[in-house]
């Protein structure tokens, strides 16, 4: 059995001391500046011709990230429209007929984004799968009839069909994007391009400067106090714990905003220090620790028996990881693990072959 040195599993910042000492003075870096994969893909998508009309982006499903993507796409030359609505009818032109039979046309989002890009959540398609064939036809250049929102009245003149030159960008998390393939298999073909918003970054000297710049930008953008050197070290430790890897740091804006906002409440001065972030983390643990504490109390009260002395053949004490629906974090719970023996058929089993056969 190989034994690990304690230094191998304990984060060390000795090689980054110079960066951390000047952390507060490092230039700010916007979130999208730490997303080279996203920037490169958007640039390719804007230039691509032919039948590839959809860009699917795996990211957090919220308006904050869609706004980041909208800022990347927008160049001032082509219209870029973003929607948070799940009403698919808003995508198409709509017309109503007054009492005289005159037609009043209201432009839909496809018309507003004509010649440019339309950014929409994956949930819009998942909530309205029946409208997807019409959306797909529209972005592929087929003429589309406007929707009549007053079907009980007939127009004197019918509304004209309209062709669109629009590319759409669909955003959502991994589960939502997986469900899109059940709506249309073309989501995994040449109709679409795919990329991801990266939620972590590998720790190195150059990447640490980018990460510190991101934190400085978040503090400036959302009105939080700046961090001192000690606060950055505590933030790095918290980030490594979140990613469960001492070589990676999180990039999630929502996570940083919540932690820094809480830390600002524990800061007496106009600066966030090590103690403030530490108190914010303890406060978060206290709010989320009801279920883990109940498990501990059950053991202390004798409701759950965990033997800690003696020995028993075929039994060991272990730690199970509990994922409770509706609870934000996983937690460990002691358990007694018993060995179970299954008798075979007396032959030597080819495990790999049986696994292949299912």
From TrEMBL:
UniProt KW Protease keyword: yes
Domain Lon protease AAA: 104-189
Keyword Translocase annotated: no
Any one GO molecular function term: peptidase activity
Gene Ontology process terms (BP): proteolysis
Record key words, sorted: Hydrolase, Protease
InterPro entries: AAA_32, P-loop_NTPase, Ribsml_uS5_D2-typ_fold_subgr
Domain of life: Bacteria
Pfam families xref list: AAA_32 (PF13654)
Designated name of the protein: ATP-dependent protease
Organism: Vibrio parahaemolyticus
